[in-house]
Amino acid sequence: MRQKLTAVLCAVLLMIAMAAPDAAAAAGVYFTAANETIRELTEATMPFWANGDLYVDGSLFENKDLYTGFFYNSSKNMAVVYSRKTANNALYFDLARNRVDNSDGYGYYPPAILRNGVVFVPVSLVTAYFELGYANMRVEHGYLLRVRSDKAVLSDRTLADAGSTRMDSQYQQYLAAKSAGQQTESPGTAGETVRPPETAAGQTVRLCFRADTAETTEELLDLLDGSGARAAFYFSAEQLEQQRDLVRRMAATGQTIGLTADCAGEADPAEQLRLANEVLWRTAGVKTRLCVLENAADAGRQSAEAAGYCCLTPDVDWAETGLRTTSAASSLLKKISGRKGGQTVWLGARAESGGLRALLRLAQQADHRLVGLTETD
After folding, report:
1. Which residues fall within 8 angstroms of residue 279, CB to CB, at 6 or more apart?
2. Could you give the CA distance from residue 13 to residue 58 in angstroms, rounded to a whole number?
């Protein structure tokens, strides 16, 4: 009997050992594509998450079909993504000073990241600035990050399906090279982030506010910027017009900007969001796909999602309770700490500086991190 148990145990251990390489790769990888071209899969140029933003190898934008170019001057520590359609239209990523400016000297956020000699740029910033589209899709073996211009023919999902054989072949070659020790250490894999890992006590928290008056919004923004925290603020088109200076400040300091649409009337929510995005572009030179639908029925949500918008679905809806007092902040923190994984919290328009100040202090004590919401969260 003992011999049989020993044999079974050895067989199980052997199976685990044989499965180990696949388990290590189970987290997946990031494939990248520009329009219909799926690029070579390497660890050195693989996208990664950092502080709530998805970064991609800057050379992806060296592409005539995207109407953009890219170059990196290592001696000046400066990377540039520029437009091939419009003269004097570029984003200058100063890696020495950790900042981004356009051709007119207007600042943007977040900055580029240099890893193992490769410049990575935030895909959401670059695509919004040059009016490109992008999609981050789940595929076999990981994710496919696609950047597209109006020259793209295939839809995102059609490209993912059509390119499955190529991606599978690249993935097998990637595993073989990795096994042979030919790949360098990866800056990140699909679904992975270079944020500090969450501890047993710590959580990643994404606060979401509905923009209220300019005075209230500014008070909340002052507290967030002062503590190095990030959050998402959702604006209607009218509020974007009324709070233009604050919106530009958010875009420059890395706070997340979202849009709101009211589904109670006859106006199509997708059209409301499109018009609000035009105001956002005129105001701050960025666009967003994040949105909150008010009074939404299924049809309204389907319309917005079909147009490419990411409707907020919070893990914790705290809008009814609000965040105005220390007591409310303490109760919210307990709820967050009692749940596993990162939490997206919707606070609506019922937040005030006193409540946020208390939450920031309590979150710091609990080792929670307040980060910006992304389109894939």
Report:
1. 237, 240, 241
2. 43
Q: Are 232 and 260 in contact (CB under 8 A)?
A: no
- Contact (Cβ atoms closer than 8 angstroms) between residue 351 and residue 323: yes
| Beta-bridge partner residues of 113 | 120
- Do 307 and 147 form a contact (C-beta atoms < 8 A)? no
294-303 burial: b if 16+ Cβ within 10 Å, else e: eebeeebbeb
76 secondary structure, DSSP code: T
Strands lying side by side in the sheet with 29-34: 37-38, 29-34, 142-148, 133-139
Q: 129: closest CA among 97, 164, 161, 101?
A: 101
Sign of CA dihedral 262, 263, 265, 268: positive
Q: What is the largest CA-CA distance in the chain?
A: 81
pLDDT over 60 (residue 198): no
**Per-residue confidence at 362, pLDDT binned at 50, 70, 90?**
very high
Chain mean position to CA 314:
16
End-to-end CA distance of the chain: 52
CA 314/CA 207 separation, integer angstroms = 9
Helices (H) and strands (E) in the chain, counts: 11, 21
Q: What is the pLDDT of residue 242?
A: 92
* Beta bridge mates, 207: 231, 345
Per residue in 260-291, is it b (16+ CB within 10 Å) or e — as a string? Answer: bbebeeeebbbebbbebbebbbebbbbbbbbb
In Å, what is the CA distance from 314 to each residue of 42, 292, 377? 35, 10, 10
Q: What is the pLDDT of residues 350-359, one digit of tens each?
A: 999 999 999 9
- Please check the confidence at residue 368 and state whether its pLDDT lies above 70: yes
What is the distance between the alpha carbons of residues 152 and 271, in angstroms, rounded to a whole number?
Answer: 23
| Rounded Cα distance, 341 and 315, in Å | 10
